[in-house]
Amino acid sequence: MGLYDRYLATRVRLSDAHLPETVALVITERDLLGDGAYDTLERFFDWAVQYGTETVVVYVSVLDEEAIPTLRRELENVTAPMEMAVRVPDDESTADAPIQVSIGLGGKSEFATAVQKLAEDVDRGALAPDDIDEAAVEEHLVFPTAPDLVIKTGAERLSDFMIWQSVYSELYFTDVNWQNFRQRDYLRALRDYQERQRRFGR
After folding, report:
1. Are 167 and 150 in contact (CB under 8 A)?
2. How far apart are CA 58 and CA 96, in angstroms?
3. Out of 7, 30, 76, 161, which could bridge 59 as a Cys pair, Cβ 3.0 to 4.6 Å?
4. Is the dihedral of CA 92, 97, 103, 107 positive or negative?
5. Which is nearest to 79 in space by CA: 52, 119, 41?
6. What SUPFAM superfamilies does the record tag this protein with (predicted)?
7. What is the DSSP string of the chain?
8. What distance lies between CA 189 and its chain's CA centroid?
9. What is the pLDDT averaged over residues 19-31?
10. Contact 21, 198 (CB under 8 A)
11. Tens digits of per-residue pLDDT, 46-82?
12. Are 28 and 37 in contact (CB under 8 A)?
């Protein structure tokens, strides 16, 4: 860790502001093609745990669906400091591990599936329409944890990920590409988060 990184780390640790308990990372399929991309992801997991994150969610946006099996195999072999759950578009089971990875499973699809399950519950008499509330929707989401901080690398635009869960999240965009993402970039995201006043839509 260089001098500037140590300076940032000290600022983060000495601040009275809270650190995010849940951090989401948005990267692309192309980001994982570069040399050392998975090593960077392993380091990212370590940084998150080091600075108190309890849940890490990673979304890999995918253009070529044929790449999903390869991405899944590679990601399931990544060394992580906590248990990891990997989900792809065909998976509907809840990702309940401390590290959750979505490969091409977008927020629109996830939300539509949750609505379908609620409709099935109503159809078989297990749920009354008037009983459908936010909690009922969240019970049927693959990724139920709402992130405190969402980090998007490489471009300042939103993606189709956690559209329900991230409505009150703090968004951090960095023009640093994933291949060049370093600990100082993660620390900058944490400092930016600490300096914000969260309003949760108010």
Report:
1. no
2. 13
3. 161
4. positive
5. 41
6. Undecaprenyl diphosphate synthase (SSF64005)
7. --HHHHHHHHHHHH-SSPPPSEEEEEEETGGGGSTTHHHHHHHHHHHHHHTT-SEEEEEEE-S-GGGHHHHHHHHHTS--SS-EEEE-TT--S---SSEEEEES--HHHHHHHHHHHHHHHHHTTSS-GGG--HHHHHHT-SS-PPPSEEEEESSS---SS-TTTTTTPEEEEE-S-GGG--HHHHHHHHHHHHTS---TT-
8. 14
9. 95
10. no
11. 999 999 999 999 999 998 889 999 999 999 999 999 9
12. no
| Look-up of token digits 């939300």 | 111
CA–CA gap between residue 42 and residue 157 (Å, rounded): 25
* pLDDT score at 38: 97
Q: How confident is the model at residue 156 (pLDDT cuts 50, 70, 90)?
A: low
Q: How far apart are CA 26 and CA 152, in angstroms?
A: 5
Angle at 8 between CA 3 and CA 14, to 5 degrees: 120
Instruction: Examine the pLDDT at 5 and tell me if it is beyond 90.
Output: no
> Model's pTM, two decimal places?
0.89
**Cα gap 136→86, rounded to integer Å:** 23
Count how many Cα atoms sit within 13 Å of the Cα of residue 175 in the half-sphere of its side chain: 0
**Torsion sign over Cα 35, 38, 44, 49:** negative
Determine the Cα angle at 148 with ends 138 and 69, to 5°. 65
Predicted confidence (pLDDT) at residue 45 exceeds the cutoff of 70: yes
